[in-house]
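Let's do one together. I've listed all components of the complex below, 514 residues spread over two lines.
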Amino acid sequence: MSEAKKYPAPVTNPETAAFWDAAKEGKFMIKRCTACGEAHYFPRAICPFCYSDKTVWEESSGEATIYTWSLMRKSPTGPYAIGYVTLKEGPSLQTNFVDCDLETLKIGQKVKVVFKPTDGAPLPFFTPV
Amino acid sequence: MTIKGKAYIAGIFEHPTRHAPDKSTAQLHAEVAKGAIEDAGLSKDDVDGYFCAGDAPGGAWPMVDYLGLNTKKLRHVDSTETGGCSYIIHLGHAAEAIAAGKCSIALITLAGKPRTGAMPPRASGAEADFELAYGATTHNAYGMCAMRHMHDYGTTSEQLAWIKVAASHHAQYNPHAMLKDVVTVEDVLNSPMISDPLHRMDCCVVSDGGGALIVTTPEIAKSLKKPLVRLIGHGEAMKGPRGGKDLDLTYSAGIWSGPRAFEEAGITPEDIKYASIYDSFTITVLMQLEDLGFCKKGEGGKFVADGNLISGVGKLPFNTDGGGLCSNHPVNRGGMTKILEAVRQLRGEAHPKVQVQNCDLAIAHGTGGLLGVRHAASTAILERV
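Okay, and this is what the predicted structure of the assembly comes out as:
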């Protein structure tokens, strides 16, 4: 089901273009502030915690655990599971779970990033390890 | 500075329709405006403040023109848009404007027709590329909150179901309610799973309709014929994932808006006789009750069980019109109807079967946006004088 699903291409903008360029090479990027040391997601030019503009791109391990999930039983494109994962580097983010039995997802389960194609840059999803 | 006691709700109107394919959205706004102005015993030419949100076609200036408001007199406009709780925020802002002398008779309207046709998608923010593809809807965004709440606190589907059961007990007495049948915990658990762990009966209805309020000065309110209901405390707040740090979907922005309102009112949750709590989903109610301090965080499941929210049965009568779970949810925005039923309770105009005796203090609380993503919350504490 999820393989056949058509995902919208990111619009991108100057603040986030580097994220999508890296995604095209299979790299999942986060931003880290060199002033306060905090990582954040989705990426901003200005650190949302200390307002420093000294934020730098960092490649994430793509390793995460499921914080929560919900399986939408029906939709025009079939069932899908939305959720939040918490990256090994700290930030939590919204995603969909793919390439797995959606009925067996569990909070705390280990997952890893996987990219799915669009007509533009690929989008990050997560799948159980 | 405080708005405590500076503004009174002098007029209310809830549109009786739940399905309005034969009316325009602007027309519904006009019908509820007319209803609230007449309820107050005023004329449209008296209105000098107008408040509306994203459901008003074209926004404030087309609505002011369409409604034929007196533009020589109109001197304060506010189109704050915070989803379903916009109207509770408007109530607070109207009180601020009245206290500051910026207007004296404020009209707040809500209306729309999501049951007749799909609503336009909400505008997205800077997160769009990083979230829209994942298909967050109301169902799964609230489902994610419920899933984590169950994980952290052991909350059960049976406990959530009691919220719907209580709403249905009230809705049986509301002739306008969409769902008038009393349901059981088993009925809720046996209804189809929509987005885990929320069943169909954990979800509110989709309805057309609307509502309106007239907010005014103490002097004007006392010159009119309606029972006196005044705003004594108000709070508003927002919450989101904030860069993904310390994500916690088990509480809402109500954890901040509630205490602000209670502090201004100078009362505590124990003093509240009736509660209007936004019930987009059962989990919305459970989390709001915890966040507002009616019980400790994590104990909402125990608090709502065994009919504790049923008028005449439990400790905290809630949503005695049947709420969004059973009566209506105009424009997918529940904030207005929460205020309307709270005012009816304080006036003694609720249905006799659900009217709370000696109801002198009530709360109307709502959220807007998606509880599991980004949202606003607003709390209003109302007193019968």
